[in-house]
Amino acid sequence: MVTPSELFRYAIHKFRHLLRGNGGTEELEINRMSLPRKLLLEAAMIMVAVVYVVPFYWMVLKATRISILANFPPDLNPFSRTSFNNFINNFHQVWSFGNFPTWYFNSILVSSVVVTTSVMVGAMAGYAFARLKFRGRNILFYVVLGTLMIPFPVILIASYVFMVDIGWINSYQGLILPQIASAVNVFLMRQYFLTIPSEIEDAAKIDGLRPWQIFYRISAPLAKPAFAASAIYTFIGSWNNFLWPLLEAQTVNYWTLPLALNFFKGANGTQIYWNQMMMADILALIPTFIIYMIFERYFIQGISLTGTKG
After folding, report:
1. For residue range 3-24, what is the model confidence (pLDDT) as tens digits?
2. Domain final position from 49, 78, 95
3. CATH classification of the domain holding 195
């Protein structure tokens, strides 16, 4: 029986070797299938890939056009009214729109700080739940998991009032603080630390290392895949966050990219410039794509190993 994780790993495996141009095989259950079943499975994956790729293709295509309006039916011909000069012109118009460089910098700054602090806090909390023995550990862990069932809009007003009381409205710390705590990171890190043999840490204790030294010198370096998976999830969530910056950032100087992109959709009451909107979307997509491509190997390994122990 082919599991979804096996299917995902196989797709990533094929894509990586296609980019690198080398052979190599990975011993997966899919590779032991009969030829007709394997061809059928690969055809299904190609169809799914097309469904996902077409919107990105249309986005890039539209970013190279000079027309501000969407065509119906859509023109998917890459050689129709497309030129590199149009692409550069759209980029220049988007980058000079309002305070777009400042908004881009704000998103990078907020997301970077959120990822760094949230992953570290989640890793330390996950390690404590996995290795340290204290009264009420399991109950507290279930309470942390229970927060996953609370939608953010439920605590939105309380968070906003708290920021008003401490004077952090319209500030970078106000944008960052509510995004640091993440039960998902705590869960992922705890599950991964449970997969690390406890004998390694027992040997470190015999050598006289304290718990925090064991964490930073032994456990954390071994948990790179879990760190990568948590970092990618956290970055995507912070980079795409729209609701909280909408309330927190009350002046344009503290806007992030999701708020800026909303202007290109005509939220300011003007004409929708589809070519510039698509160019802005491409610029917003670049950091996420780069981070995933850098940490892709660790990300797949982290997802495949977390959850193997309870």
Report:
1. 545 555 555 555 555 545 444 4
2. 95
3. 1.10.3720.10
